[in-house]
Amino acid sequence: MRKRFVVFRCPVCGKFTYAPLGQKTRLCSFCGKIIRIDARQAIVVDDAKQASFLVKRYNLKGGEKNYLETLKAQKKELLNLIEEVEEVPESSYEGKEVASSSKTRRMFIMLKENCTNPINIDELRELCKKYNLEWDWVREQLEVLSKEGTVIFPKPWLLQYISDETVEGYVPKKRPSRKKNSLYQVKNLRKALANVLKGKNEPVSYNELVEILKAKGFTLDEIEETVRKLSMEGLLIEPRPGYFLWIGDY
Asked: CA-CA distance, 129 to 91, in Å (whole number)?
């Protein structure tokens, strides 16, 4: 059965985004906050492609009206779907609780023991109970660690711990900060990427896209970050793995 998705508004920045149906937490691609998903204020769609399209549509001027109209029409179906999803019991973690120590140390033990491979944020939230940690505090620390590069989000609802520090040295490794691109550089790359894709009549492979943009002077890191953000904004879709198609306006 195809996995369904929900489109909803970030409670922090107000931008629309999406997640798999049943997901309770995700990283907002716009404001960088780890947010709680209120499924009762979301719209259910059949696949990620449709969700991406609606995110783009609702984030345009006047899009909120379309969102509210669809939400009202879909309310009954949504409540039934939520009941079905919530019937599935959440994961429980049994076993000896981690010995009491500083909160920071316990958090890094948890990350090292469970998050060296991508883990669903909902699952991580449940793990906090085993390590005697408050989720709200952990969430705030993860937002800071993501800026340092100690944790990454392969997908907005997945988290991975990538620090090579040992648990004994639980303070995250300081990575050299990368110089931020100016707003002009970011806009220039977005425009260049859009022009490349709009000039094609079919999806373009990621490798071809990278080679074209690198020839224009952009770095691989800049290209990867821009592709990720444009995909989350619904301006770029991936009709098949490794191939991208532009559906934006500029």
From this structure: 11
